[in-house]
Design brief:
binds adenosine-5'-diphosphate, binds zinc ion, three-stranded antiparallel sheet, Rossmann fold, alpha/beta
Length: about 210
């Protein structure tokens, strides 16, 4: 079961991916999480990526393609995986297809979470993320039981540097220019499964479950 979660920043990809990991027992592969882990560890990759991330631009294709190529070859991906936040450009999608073909593998479904633009700013500026395990929350729509602390691991919640209004504005533009073309790309390959991303988090989880079985 090889799945792509597609959708604009704030659509709920990470939130749904974390629930799908438990349901299907396949790992979530988030290029954003991997880049942030590299930044935390102050690796050259992380330090380089930060420049792009802070301004809301995409990290160069070859960097994220390299990350994905080594990650999907790891043992825990044998039974499948969920790509969250990758691919984000047509060049990334083409590189993915090529590497999977070489592995005699392919993508089964592209879950496209649809949320109108005017909803996304509020979701992203209110997002809080666990410093320890990466679980996402929202100050209004999905608050933790104890303010500032993660329900899952007790870790400290923080606001991502790029979840401010100016950077979110750029990220939404970058999405429209560079990532939205992937909707047609996967539609043409009959892999696109559009999901209405408005409503309760659990409700949307149910909609995705209906598609994936
Ligand atoms: P993405 O990974 O697509 O950028 P996230 O899963 O991190 O999006 O969700 C962005 C923010 O919106 C988070 O704060 C999350 O708690 C919140 N959120 C997720 N799903 C919903 C929903 N269905 N309704 C309202 N808020 C949501
Ligand atoms: P969100 O959950 O809001 O969609 P992510 O955590 O997926 O955000 O991504 C944060 C940032 O990391 C992006 O704005 C971009 O700079 C970088 N990034 C993540 N994935 C990719 C990718 N596939 N290609 C290029 N840049 C990426
Ligand atoms: Zn946590």
């Amino acid at each position: 079961m090889n799945i792509i979660l597609l959708g604009p920043p704030g659509a709920g990809k990470g939130t749904q991916a974390k629930m799908l990991v438990d349901k299907y027992g396949i790992p979530q592969i988030s290029t954003g999480d991997i880049l942030r882990a590299n930044l935390k560890a102050q690796t050259p990759l992380g330090i380089e990526a930060k420049k792009y991330m802070d301004s809301g631009k995409l990290v160069p294709d070859e960097v994220v393609i390299g990350i994905i190529e080594s990650r999907i070859k790891e043992d825990d991906c044998q039974k499948g995986y969920m790509l969250d936040g990758f691919p984000r450009t047509v060049a990334q999608a083409e590189a993915l297809e090529q590497m999977l073909t070489q592995m005699s593998s392919g993508i089964d479904d592209v879950i496209s979470i649809e949320v109108p633009n005017d909803e996304l700013m509020g979701r992203l500026t209110g997002r809080r993320t666990c410093r320890n395990c990466g679980q996402g929350y929202h100050v209004m729509f999905d608050p933790p039981q104890k303010e500032g602390l993660c329900d899952k691991c007790g870790g400290e919640l923080y606001q991502r540097d790029d979840d401010n209004e100016a950077t979110v504005g750029n990220r939404l533009k970058v999405y429209a220019d560079q990532t939205q073309p992937l909707i047609d790309y996967y539609q043409n390959k009959s892999l696109l499964r559009p999901i209405d991303g408005l409503g309760e988090i659990k409700e949307i989880f149910g909609r995705i479950g209906q598609v994936l079985g």
